[in-house]
User: Fold these one by one.
Assistant:
Number 1:
Amino acid sequence: MVAEEFKDFKLKPMKCELNYLSKSDGSAILAQGETFVLASVNGPLDIKITSQSMEKATLEVLFSAKGGKPNVSDRFKESVIRQTCETAILGCLYPRTGITVTIQELEDFGGLLTCAVNCTCLALLNSGLSMKHVVAAVSCALDDSGNLVLEPTFDQIQSAAATMHFVFDSREKTLVTGFTTGTFSEGAYDEALERCRAASDLVFDFYREVVATYCKVIG
């Protein structure tokens, strides 16, 4: 159960547009504060026999940084997003096919990976792929004074003693993906986890608003 004291907070303003790209099976552009990400989904598609899996779809995630040249950090983002998506997509329904997720960084003012995960989830919803659940990512920073800051800005991240990122599923709010940097106590981690778990409700509520608005448009 989420502690009541963790429910009185706000996240960065979120804005989203679905079907942003006309030539993809699903796409979304998402702003969380001043951080912007564009994600597109294509598939299920026919792929080479050597890349096929008899049991499920083969998922490929491509992350493009604003600077253009890929680096180790970009490959890490791809790995996190791919592992997260594989827990959500019912890949067993699409054996021997491929699904490609492409993510483009537009602006990074803090929380880029969080925004990328959430934008990817919205693009998957837009694509119509069958999913076990949707996911919501929330980040938290621990400052030098020991205070936790939800969805920190770029400057707050740079000066933080530690940063923690969590992704939760929509069914049980269980932790799907989590990774941290820096030094922190076990108590700080537990508190950050519960704060982010509670904050994920706001992200899921936002998804519902987006999908409801989109359904009215196409209805």
Number 2:
Amino acid sequence: MASKRKTLCVDQKVALIRAIEKGEKKSDVGKRFGFSPSTVATIWKNKDKILQAEIERSSCKRIRKPKFEDLDQAMLTWFHKQCSNNVLISGPVLKTKAEHFAQQFGIIDFKASEGWLGKFKQRHNITYGKISRKVLNVDLNVTNSWIINVWPKLNEKYTPDDIFNAGETGIFYRLTPDKTLKFKGEKCMEGKLSKERITVFVAANMSGTEKRKIMVIGKSKNPRCFKNIKRLPVTYKANKSAWMTSILFEEEIRKWDAELKGRKILLIVDNCPAHPNLSNLMNIEMTFFPANTPSIVQPMDLGVIKSLKGHYKKKILMEIIESDGNASINMLDAVNFLSKAWEEVTAETIRHSFRHAGLRSNLANAEEEIEQFEKEDDNISLSEWIIQSNTPHTFTPEDLQNYVEIDENLVTTILLTDEEILNAVTKGEEEQKEDEEEEQPDEVVIPSIQQALDAAKLLEKYLLFHEDDPKLSQNMGQIHRKIQKKYWQNKQVQTKKTFLNKLIV
């Protein structure tokens, strides 16, 4: 009598695919799961369809919020920390750690059961598998080996438009040149200086044709200067240290993955604790540079970030000079300046940085491109820019040099201790309010519709006398009409209110 055909669920198929992806032999996986070689071959052949079905199914499931959200967040942070250190984590270890954190939170009626473990894994899409331990110390031989042996195989699958690099940098966002000396050499871990810093996450493609909207990480979750803002020019996130974390990184990458809608890209990032190796990405293939090599092979660190900071600091200086030294930079100013500075980082700068990293092949016009890059405004120092601008200022060359260098080596990611994890997820409202007050001492004056209309009229008239670019005048005309339309809409609302009030009286 023929044996009954075995029906496999999606979970079993996905588990088999994941095991093979992690390096297990198909024959060994088949024996462990009890599947025939032909069944394994069929599942592997249809892996893309099966994984897509799993994602669609998972998105339809209603995943309940955890009963103890602080505990859940602390456990997820701790789990990512261990994964970043290549520590093997088992179910019993997770349950033991959860009960430890529960005691720290003062949760009495918590039991890390198998049911809790299953729901925790489901909520955060956690699966177990082999984790290879990476060598921590990498020399130039390792870097060269990666460029020669690993990179060509990745590079051949994508065009320059679809190869991206991403990285973080720290910036003292409201520090002025005349205040850098007293901060020189101070560690940015706590105290006044720590409240001056933010972390900026940038990403761009190899061809320089596409720059992702930058992400800014501050200390205050809801800066007062953001009140009533309808749209920020950046993605803004916050945590107690203003650092990139594995949670923020995962949120950003998964959001990006969903936005691609079928377009396939390669994303290269440095191997650091805040960059977990994410599974189940549909459109992004993630790969990592060898450990401890970002300054050698990462394009963002080889010119792009320097250019971004240069443009940003020029805008700070322009603000100071234009206001006769009375400028006060808040977080809203910072994100606006950063967004504009990012726009001004040129495609030539990005392409040059990829070539300098050894990731972009030499093209026929390479010499012309490098010559053009060297002429770019990106490479003009702040001192040269101030001299060329011929504007009065009180900054010494030493001030400007310190201003350029002071945030070059800021820490942007860190491994958290258990105590820091607990503190991060239990930050009280009073502490949050204190941060907002300290970081944003200046109230933002919101321009009225009348002020906006007057400014639009003035700018349109200015362009008539001083500019002959028709496109610029056309854009200004569109802005004027939009503000004017808003003005009359408000006028009609006010007229109706006045009429109704008269009727009531």
